[in-house]
Amino acid sequence: MAAQVAADLFANVTRALRGKPDEARLAIAALLSGGHLLIEDVPGVGKTLLAKAIAQSVGGTFRRIQGTPDLLPADLTGITMYRREAESWEFQPGPLFANVVLVDEINRATPRTQAATLEAMEERQVTVDGRTHPLPKPFLVIATQNPFEHAGTFPLVEGQRDRFSLVLELGLPGRQSERELLLGQGGTDVLRHLKPTTDPTTLANAISEVHRVPVHEAITEYVLDISAATRSHPAVSLGASPRASLSLLRVAQAHATIVGRSFVAPDDVKRVAPAVLSHRIILSSGDLRAATAVIEEILAKVAVPTG
After folding, report:
1. What is the rounded distance in angstroms from the CA atom of residue 307 to the CA atom of residue 189?
2. Peptide bond into 242 cis (omega under 30)
3. Do 70 and 137 reside in the same domain of the chain?
4. Angstrom distances, CA of residue 284 to CA of 18, 199, 238
5. Are 37 and 166 contacting, i.e. CB atoms less than 8 angstroms apart?
6. Which of 135, 66, 48 lies closest to 103 in space, CA to CA?
7. Cα separation of 112 and 183, whole Å?
8. If phi over 0 gives left and psi between -120 and 50 gives alpha, with beta otherwise, what is residue 286?
9. 57 — alpha (psi -120 to 50), left (phi > 0) or beta?
10. Does the reported pTM lie above 0.85?
11. Are residues 221 and 285 in the same domain?
């Protein structure tokens, strides 16, 4: 069932996002792993398009939040209001209460407002005025951001980045894909007509099925070896966390499902590792973009299980 859900999502998303099949698979892997997705790149390459295509394909409830410097935490979580007619306090849910939440240009919001998503992303709940409110199931945050060096942005803190299962950079489309966009064969012209290919209940069941994909002990050790290598690498000042190790395993299970495998292979781990780990390590030089090269170097050195 999960494999069919993945295939339907992929076919739908790639109708709008042209020329980026690998990126679409990774985005769907994040979704089926039960995690969250961060898409970062320069403006105009399709970040919001991909996020909206996923949201429309999933069905269920969808909310969009535009990151701005004047956005407040309560604008995301909701507030408790006094109802005079009922003489009681009533909680008014914010836009985080949806199956799919798009936070567009998340790094244009202040760190205080960014922090309002931390509890939601990790614990699938929101606490307002001392009361805890569960979020819908499944719950997925898809955030986009422009490179942090652009004016008017606030870099995400380590704890925030660590809560994203993987980070994608789309890059520019090829000439043929860009031609298709100009001719209305993709992009927003197609996005307007996308229909859901699944629903929240089916998606939740697919995520549970992905978590049950068999993982050999050797694959588990392989994941642990990769994470350990990030912590001991001379160029890294902060290596992958245990949460990162779990994300790597979960996304590898999802990738195996997407490509039609009934078990996790080393290739699944290697394919998703750069997107899962690069944003979670901090280099001594502070160069975030060089992190991917470090992960690729680690993957080339860590022994691949063959049994």
Report:
1. 48
2. no
3. yes
4. 37, 44, 8
5. yes
6. 66
7. 42
8. left
9. alpha
10. yes
11. yes
Where in the sequence is the domain holding 263, given as residue range(s)? 213-302
What is the arithmetic mean of pLDDT over 198-220?
95
- Is pLDDT at 149 greater than 80 in this prediction? no
Looking at the structure, tell me whether residues 234 and 108 fall in a common domain.
no
What's the confidence (pLDDT) of residue 92?
93
pLDDT tens digits along 17-61: 888 899 999 999 999 999 999 998 877 778 888 888 998 999 889
Which tokens is 41 given?
A: 């790149």
> Which residue bears the tokens 């005079």?
84
Q: Using one digit for the tens of pLDDT, what is the confidence trace for 110-141? A: 999 999 999 999 999 999 988 999 999 999 99
Same domain, 27 and 161: yes
Q: Look at the chain and report how many structural domains it folds into.
A: 2
In a domain, 8, yes or no: no
3-state secondary structure the chain: CHHHHHHHHHHHHHHHCCCCHHHHHHHHHHHHCCCCEEEECCCCCCHHHHHHHHHHHHCCCEEEEECCCCCCCHHHHEEEEEECCCCEEEEEECCCCCCEEEEECHHHCCHHHHHHHHHHHHHCEEEECCEEEECCCCCEEEEEECCCCCCCCCCCCHHHHHCCCEEECCCCCCHHHHHHHHCCCCCHHHHCCCCCCCCHHHHHHHHHHHHCCCCCHHHHHHHHHHHHHHHHCCCEEECCCHHHHHHHHHHHHHHHHHCCCCCCCHHHHHHHHHHHHHHHCEECCCCHHHHHHHHHHHHHHCCCCCC
- Cβ(95)–Cβ(101) below 8 Å: yes
Q: Between 2-16 and 21-32, two packed helices, what is the crossing angle to 10 degrees?
A: 140
Name the β-bridge partners of 126: 133
- Angle at alpha carbon of residue 299, lines to 295 and 301, rounded to 5°: 115
